[in-house]
Prior knowledge:
Layout: E1 10-13, H1 23-38, E2 42-45, H2 52-57, H3 62-70, E3 77-81, E4 87-90, H4 102-114, E5 118-121, H5 125-137, H6 147-151, H7 154-162, E6 168-171, E7 178-182, E8 186-190, E9 199-201, H8 209-219, E10 224-228, H9 234-245, E11 251-255, E12 258-259, H10 270-282, H11 299-307, H12 315-325, H13 334-339, H14 344-353, H15 367-373, E13 384-385, H16 388-401, H17 404-418, H18 420-438, H19 447-451, H20 468-475, H21 481-493, H22 502-516, H23 522-533, H24 541-548, H25 550-563, H26 565-568
Parallel strand pairs: 1-2, 10-11, 12-13
Antiparallel strand pairs: 3-4, 5-6, 6-9, 7-8
This protein binds one RNA strand through helix 5, strand 8, helix 8, strand 13 and helix 16.
Amino acid sequence: MSHVADRTTVTRFAPSPSGNLHVGGARTALFCYAFAKGHDGRFVLRIEDTDQKRSSEAAGLGFLADLDWLGLHWDEGPVFTCQDGRSVGGGEHGPYFQSERLATYDAAIDRLIAEGKAYLAFDTPEELDAARQAARAEKRAFRYDGAAARALSDADRERLRAEGRPCVVRFASPQRDIVIRDEILGEATLPAGEVDDFVIRKADGFPTYHFAVVLDDAAMQVTHVLRAQEHFNNTAKHLLLQEALGLPHPTYAHLPIIFNPDGSKMSKRDKDKALREAAKTAGLEKSPDGPDGSPIVDEKAYARWLGDKTVQLPGEAATAMAAALGVALPEIDVEDFRRSGYLPEVLVNFLALNGWSPGDDLEKFDLAFLCQRFALDRVVKTPARFDRAKLLAFNLDAIQQMDEATFLARLLDHGRRYHPGFIARLGEERMAALAAASHARSKTLDEPYVGNAFLVADDESISWPPDKAIDKALRKGEPNGLANLAACVPALQAIDEHAWNVATLERVLETFVAERELGNIGKVAQPLRVAVSGGTVSPPIFDTLEMLGRTSCLRRIERCLAAFEHSNVATS
RNA sequence: GGCCCCUUCGUCUAGUCUGGUCCAGGACACCACCCUUUCAAGGUGGGUACACGGGUUCAAAUCCCGUAGGGGUCACCA
């Protein structure tokens, strides 16, 4: 039992290719990265694509961009061009896709077979299923009984193979207590019998996770395995395999799992779950139409998705479906938070706080600090619920810390990616004005876009839906909002196009309020806001009016007054 | 159900190893008030936790035992 010592610290993040990186994975990657960097070590990224079905279906390496966005760049792994143009990845221990390392696994498996440490097994999936169900019925844990398969003679095996019977390779697990040493959880002993003769090579010739992970960690000189706690029990298998193969044991540390706010395990399937529930509640028989007018998914796919909890909708289809059903998708992927306007440095900070803390009541820190201070002995053992409200508060703080120019630049960056039409429509100059007017009140980079859609809407498309708050602004009081609105129009009309700015508007409207003895600028500000935006929320009124421009403001006020003309008779 | 692990405010956590400085600290959320042209933001103040039961000890959130609760895992997925 050799131990890894006096070597460069190497950690690895080893996800399966499943499209987007979710926050749990991101936190694991973050800790792996911080640990390696804090020890002047290397951070390796390896793609665990040994499940042919999954890899071909879900696929995608979208999470590489997510890691890049978070600033978690790998020293070794798939070659990738970052946003800033530089290239990361590569390395001398590749390839970094397990599907390209089959020869290595086969050689090792053959060796184990030759040494009598592994054997061919011909059980069919049906037989195994039956045995599993029987065990469950007896409330027993299922353990594969290798007696029969082990008893097979070489001649028997050759005959079965010649018949073309599919077979797997199973590891002949030594039956004894296994002690797992974990830097976070401490020491645990798994009693003999807990680890059965598990499969190391599947019928399709691919190795299982357990086998590939052990061989690759050794090949890539990984010294510290940081992974989610759900892998804890698997460690026993890995320890046994390492011994059989004569490989060193890396140090293990199992990270607490991240949960949803309601305490359920956070899963990539949560989005589909939310959508499926909404679809069922709405009683939808077939897929709703997407933005292009055709069904989002065809009838067959829809039925399959609705009936099978494990089927996931592709990202875009899920987004379209959410829009069609009017459901807010839970944010669980890094990309979701990016789209929602969270800052990567804030996500990094907050993610680190789920499961770790530097102590000293310190909560705000950056990636460099984390690298410097991160240590396994301060990782908590208990699962954490992901508190979006606190994340949002952190994001607001970070945004408020920015100077004006930085905020504008970041806002534009975000908009170019998610709201290109908005930027094109508003133009650079007014974008700057919008940034200034929204800075203090923006919790995310997305809010200014979403909350101010009226700025780029067509004047003729503004409407005033029945709404208590709108009604209050327009019709309550004496004189009411509509009356004040109508009364201030001449004053506004008197302002020149080129003088239509915050200073002038403020002076003119304050004069108006004083002359009419309305007492409070709100008496006219709120009706104006409603008239001009179709809602009761906007940036400060003078900024709003300036950004919109004289023509649009006057036209919208005119339309608003017209829209309420009749209903106004009674109260004016 | 078997096995393994965990248990401090609503949430994330500090404190636990090295019992006393903790009638338990911070943050977010919440409540109240202030400010206010909307929504926010901001300001001030406030309530809320050592799962339970036994020990050990002069002294326990901290050590021991038990109970309850929670989680993970039991795949030819990772």
